[in-house]
User: Which sequence fits this backbone?
């Protein structure tokens, strides 16, 4: 699903090598501005889990990198080239390893299916890209020096996809999870949890729903995918581990998030 580097039409295709270079550039910009968690043990766990899933997902040999954002907003997103960001607010609201793994597998699906490249092709204004990232992850627009970064370094990195891309990412995620030995039921389980949270307190998950259209129909569709996937209901698949619960407790004990923290 090769896309194009600027606007739709006759723009040249983007190779995997170009995608990796582009993703590395955008990741550097984003990492300079987002409040990333710098705890080594936390990052090691997320990267080990994410790369375990990615190893059986993307056959292009891309090295995936996973980052924990110190924000209580429930969300996650991916940019081309294998850079995936997940908010600590999402981690804290999972019950087990399978639920976090489901989200990671879904975001890996966006990269492997090159949805970000397709979004770039559709972009009409490259300078909106990092503004979208800030709005999605932190629930606010960039200000001051951040706005300068957006204006200077903006590009077509988008944190939201259409419904078809979301369905595709769900579908491939189920297979990724089974191949990595993780119970794919965590994916619809987490979707269901978010729907319940939306009814109780919409503000806690509004950013997730603005970028990941989630409905009961999507939950049912994902459950149907699991029913149809060989080995997806095997008793040897991992749902949770003590290591995950220790990791989650460590995340909860980290230094509080910035003043834009919400949902508590």
Assistant:
């Amino acid at each position: 699903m090769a896309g194009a580097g600027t606007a739709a039409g006759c723009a040249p295709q983007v190779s995997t090598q170009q995608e990796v270079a582009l993703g590395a550039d955008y990741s550097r910009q984003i990492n300079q501005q987002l409040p990333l968690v710098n705890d080594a043990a936390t990052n090691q766990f997320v990267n080990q889990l994410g790369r375990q899933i990615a190893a059986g997902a993307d056959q292009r040999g891309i090295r995936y990198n996973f980052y924990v954002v110190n924000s209580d907003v429930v969300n996650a997103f991916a940019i081309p080239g294998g850079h995936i960001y997940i908010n600590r607010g999402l981690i804290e609201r999972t019950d087990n390893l399978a639920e976090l793994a489901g989200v990671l597998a879904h975001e890996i699906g966006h990269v492997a299916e090159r949805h970000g490249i397709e979004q770039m092709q559709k972009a009409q204004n490259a300078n909106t890209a990092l503004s979208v990232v800030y709005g999605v992850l932190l629930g606010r627009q960039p200000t001051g020096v951040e706005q300068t970064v957006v204006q200077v370094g903006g590009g077509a990195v988008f944190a939201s996809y259409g419904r078809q891309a979301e369905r595709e990412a769900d579908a491939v995620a189920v297979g990724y999870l089974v191949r990595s030995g993780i119970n794919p039921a965590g994916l619809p389980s987490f979707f269901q949890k978010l729907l319940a949270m939306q009814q109780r307190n919409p503000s806690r998950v509004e950013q997730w729903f603005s970028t990941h259209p989630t409905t009961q129909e999507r939950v049912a569709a994902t459950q149907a995918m699991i029913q149809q996937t060989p080995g997806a209901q095997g008793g040897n698949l991992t749902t949770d581990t003590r290591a995950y619960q220790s990791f989650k407790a460590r995340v909860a004990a980290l230094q509080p998030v910035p003043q834009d923290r919400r949902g508590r």
Summary: The radius of gyration is 17 Å. The longest strand covers residues 65-69. The chain is about 55% helix and 5% strand. The beta strands are 65-69, 76-79, 83-87.
